[in-house]
Batch of 2 targets.
Target 1
Amino acid sequence: MNDITKRFPENPLLLPKDLRPSAEGLQIISLLNPGVFRFNKKIWLLVRVAEGVAQKEGVIFFPALNATGNTEIIEVPLNDPDLIATDARVISYKGLDYLTTVSHLRLLCSDDGIHFSEPQTNAALFGKGYLERFGIEDCRVTQIDDIYYLTYTAVSDSGVGVGLKSTKDWQHFESGGMILPPHNKDCAIFEEKVNDKYYCLHRPSSKEIGGNYIWLAESSDTRQWGNHQCLIKTRPGLWDSARVGAGAAPIRTEQGWLEIYHGANAEDQYCLGAFLMDLDAPSEVIGRTKDPIMVPTEAYELSGFFGYVVFTNGHVVDGDRLTIYYGAADEFVCGAHFSIQEILTLLS
Ligand code: MAN
């Protein structure tokens, strides 16, 4: 294993207790997987806030947004034979899947990239409508000219898909609806057009034939996506044998588009790796790290809401220095630095 990560000594940067729940009766279970961007000379995190309900013995409660956008609490006795609650993240009840938490997105900003606080001027983003009934998650933020594009996971009983919003000022948002239908997540739009087309990475999944692979798609307007191509597959026997998914927007380097991605094995242990795409033809993958570049090693990565997880979908780039912000153990927000050149030397 080749963990080349320089973690912030200040980690974890954000803990669930650092923010206030969005409504009475809810508690913040996790702060995780922030989208990251620069705006008004500050570094901003669009943090996923996962909220749940205080549990009582013998009963399981789980939240869902109702038609008016308010959180409704569903209650099931723990000994109900129709309940399967073996994964901290998902519940199956009467053959349908629910999440144990519902997520919304909150904006925090910082001058130094280490200490973040929530300005009173920016409203949180909540799931809206029946396709976001179980919340919105893991938002990637891509800036093209003066427009920020938000691609996030929209979760509901109809499935998990990719929603799009755009904004110029972080006050007013235009909704692009669901751009990639279920099952799909981990969508990151490139920060530049290539050959006059927008590109994105995304992760459709199939339970039967195929798997959890990273795909590429093109668009002329960021809303209608086509010419889908499968780029990166899971690798049997390696750390990314069960699923792979894109992180934030690829980074332009002289050698190609560098993408930091997450991979998980059958034990649901999440590490980070990287791959490189041709600058003019991103469908050509020209390198990939064999070993992970980041492995959960710290206490805050090994145990939490869902342990042994490092997951990133946001970063800032400063010359050779890549600063990623990441979710640790599906519970905390942390930061780490990498050298882009060093990552490039590990590609084969
Ligand atoms: C998986 C995990 C969860 C997430 C759901 C829905 O179970 O990534 O954290 O809430 O998918 O996206």
Note: The chain has one domain: 6-345.
Target 2
Amino acid sequence: MVTMKTKIHVLPEELCNKIAAGEVVERPSSVVKELLENSLDAGSTDILIELEAGGKRLIRITDNGCGMSRQDAFLSFERHATSKIRTDADLFALTTLGFRGEALASIASVSRLRLKTCDNDDGLGQQIYAEGGRIKNVDELGLPQGTVVEVRNLFFNLPARKKFLRKEQTELGHAADVVTKQALANPGVSFRLKHNDRIILDLRREKGLRERVAALLGRSLLRDLLPIEQQNGDDLQLSGLISQPQLTRSAASHIYTFINGRYIRDRVVQHAVMEGYRHLLMKGRYPVVVLFLQIDPAQVDVNVHPTKHEVRFREQSLVHDFIANSLQQTLRPAEWLERETFDSSANEVGNYLSERQDHMVKQENGVSANSFVSESSAQYVPPVGHFQNNIATESTTQQFYPSPPFSQLGSEDQSAIGTQYILPESEEAGFFSRLQILGQYHQSYLLCQDGADLIMIDQHAAHERVGFEKLRHAYAAGTIPSQTLLFPEVLELDFNSAAALGDNQHELESLGFEIEPFGGKSFALKAIPQLLENRDAARLVVDVALELERIGRTGQLRESIDEILILMACHSVIRANQALAVIEIRALFQELDKIDFKANCPHGRPVMQRITLAEVERLFRRQ
Ligand code: ADP
Ligand code: MG
């Protein structure tokens, strides 16, 4: 006789829910996200979010939406129970944020959940209490129309998961992120976020996106944001606010993209946004963008990922190009693209164009080759690509090898350099001081001669490098010298940046900043590092806050301090597109000579490129 032994068995419902919860509920902020989506789907115009201990102890969301009947209230605890879709065709015509019918069941299975809901004006509602997904208690009670979902002790029955939760402030930060995203997408809805009885966000109903952005990200941003409004047939529409190129962030965290009202973090969309800003931003800088794409729901599948953060487009490249082109069109007619505006007042703006360090050499070579043709079309024009390759491959390996002193007849000139040759400083001087200065190219690059070689120095990168070394030394020696501002400047920040600044007051002092809380998410900037005198320190503080926020999440401030010093150096330096007098170049070179170039370069960008005589000769077909 054969005994049938089965190895496979069907899992009990409760365990299934726990497994499903693993996909959707990672931390308190995931609960906030799901509950907010439900409240918004229910048509709420007023939503209160209350958290305790970063949401680890309590998450309570109160809305004034349509509420649920007694029967629906029971059903809402079931997995795959939803009022939002019926057939698979509905999956491709979604107009709601939720549709999987999983969130409530999942959340209930890993918490103590109380649902209070009322779907009528009569004031009689239902209350259901469940522990670990098991309904323990049901009663009727008087309630206004709407729903309250209270989630206590998240993961009380999943200790392994609970261990992964971070400290209160970090979890709160994630939750605030979620609220920020929903609030941006729904300016007509009021949101209040309370933490341990303290109001963190208080967002009134607004008529439009601008006011909502001001309330969330700081009013001062508005002057640098452009409205965008583009359309491609009936099926594709793009609207929102995008930053002018001079307003950037050190992280992509202020790129908010929404598809049909749903926040998404999609690779294709992200790429398209950056493509829209191509050539306008420095490497490592990101715009501030709040962008809404409306697309025929049949053209996009949001059922790719349990948290619905990723999507799949039916026509990926069409959407990509539409977004990129729309941004370009909005940015292009603007004044900062006109070269004529590159005077000193527009310097900061112009810089962003000239920061295209990588493309610069290539592009300018292209330009000169072209003008060469127009002047004398009979002349042979060397293939530009060939020249570029030489620079890129050979000279990068030849950086910073001092060569023997070299001198040649010429005269020293103390004014801005013209075409004259400027002799090296002295025979004993360091490598840079010994260079023979030939001139300045495009107000961005210093051309020098070292022996028979042509040396090009990126003046911005060089200054940045020098600034970084100074800061690093000052920081290592104790404190970066600071300078009190005559008139403190008030900074408005978003919640997470404000929290990061608040948490790092002490560290900021040793970086040379004095910053005091100024109510809500505002701070008064009272002193700045001396090195930043006459620079836009407020903008730097915003960057530093972002960096602190990022570091805070990994908890490695000490190790990451270089990142912040780099940021500061970047803000402190003379930008490209600036005429330099010889005396200034000399001073820069002396500073460069003090630097140990064997150390890592801050941005990893070369300060200098060497082009050998042989390369030049090849270019002119002399070899
Ligand atoms: P889904 O949102 O995917 O439908 P959920 O598990 O999040 O699934 O919610 C199940 C159902 O419970 C929803 O379809 C909706 O009918 C109802 N529901 C949940 N939250 C609310 C709320 N705040 N107000 C009104 N109805 C709600
Ligand atoms: Mg839902």
Note: The pocket of magnesium ion (ligand 2) is lined by residues 34, 37-38, 98, 103 (CB under 6 Å).
